[in-house]
């Protein structure tokens, strides 16, 4: 039962993370963000009225859609309007604020569950958050795609300063969706090998923590390799990379 919950969320969110980026280039960041929150509207009702675990899994699928579209757009929109030499800080702040919000939501829903019951507590919290998010998206969020277009035009004209994207061989300067998918799937096997090895180790040892230890050690080793042989891309720290 738990595996169906996790797999449903992970598969859907991963797919929508991929789709959201390309979709945002066509219709804009704000619309994708709005669609993400609209997809979440049924979730509180489904949790409240769920007669079986299947309803919870279905609600989790919608949660994956919401997360895949909305979280991707928070990152993309921030990158659009952030100077190139501050994007690392911006990404860190985005992740920090997001997970602080998750922690805060856990505390609030815990108290609501104590006061109103688990289902009603989640229903109340989810309804308020989704409603506020939709209203704020409509009246307070600005479209940021224009900033990205301006920066792209500057790079195309040669007027932009700073590092340029270094794509692998056989990838054009304007990669298609297929190019990006193949690059991140089997042409760049880091993520795939890590996920596969995690599953194999956890299955062979019978202990999930063994898989986590493998990931931790692999991350340490890969980070060490980057530190020793990687090339700095920050424009202020490596002006020669322009």
From TrEMBL:
| Subcellular location per the Swiss-Prot or TrEMBL entry | Cell membrane
- Provide the topology term for how it sits in the membrane: Multi-pass membrane protein
The entry's keywords: Cell membrane, Membrane, Transmembrane, Transmembrane helix, Transport
Q: Where are the transmembrane segments?
A: 32-49, 96-114, 120-141, 189-206
What range does the record give for the signal peptide? none
Entry's SUPFAM superfamilies? MFS general substrate transporter
- Name the major location: membrane
In which domain of life is the source organism classified?
Answer: Bacteria
The UniProt entry, under Pfam families, shows: MFS_1
Q: Which GO terms describe its molecular function?
A: transmembrane transporter activity
**GO CC field:** plasma membrane
Listed name of the protein: Major facilitator superfamily (MFS) profile domain-containing protein
Q: Where is the Major facilitator superfamily (MFS) profile domain?
A: 1-242
Query: In which organism is this protein found?
Result: Kineobactrum sediminis
């Amino acid at each position: 039962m738990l595996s169906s919950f996790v797999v449903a969320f992970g598969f859907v969110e991963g797919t929508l993370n991929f789709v959201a980026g390309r979709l945002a280039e066509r219709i804009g960041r704000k619309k994708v963000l709005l669609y993400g929150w609209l997809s979440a509207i049924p979730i509180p009702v489904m949790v409240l009225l769920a007669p079986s675990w299947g309803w919870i899994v279905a609600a989790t699928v919608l949660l994956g859609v919401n997360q895949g579209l909305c979280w991707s757009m928070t990152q993309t929109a921030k990158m659009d309007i952030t100077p190139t030499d501050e994007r690392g800080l911006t990404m860190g702040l985005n992740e920090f604020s997001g997970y602080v919000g998750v922690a805060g939501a856990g505390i609030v829903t815990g108290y609501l569950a104590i006061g109103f019951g688990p289902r009603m507590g989640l229903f109340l919290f989810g309804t308020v958050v989704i409603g506020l998010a939709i209203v704020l998206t409509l009246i307070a969020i600005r479209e940021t795609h224009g900033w990205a277009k301006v920066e792209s035009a500057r790079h195309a004209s040669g007027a932009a300063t700073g590092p340029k994207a270094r794509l692998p061989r056989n990838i054009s300067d304007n990669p298609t969706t297929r190019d990006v998918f193949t690059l991140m799937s089997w042409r760049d096997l880091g993520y795939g090998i890590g996920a596969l090895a995690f599953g194999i180790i956890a299955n062979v040892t019978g202990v999930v923590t063994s898989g986590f230890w493998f990931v931790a050690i692999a991350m340490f080793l890969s980070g060490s390799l980057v530190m020793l042989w990687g090339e700095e891309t920050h424009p202020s720290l490596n002006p020669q990379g322009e």
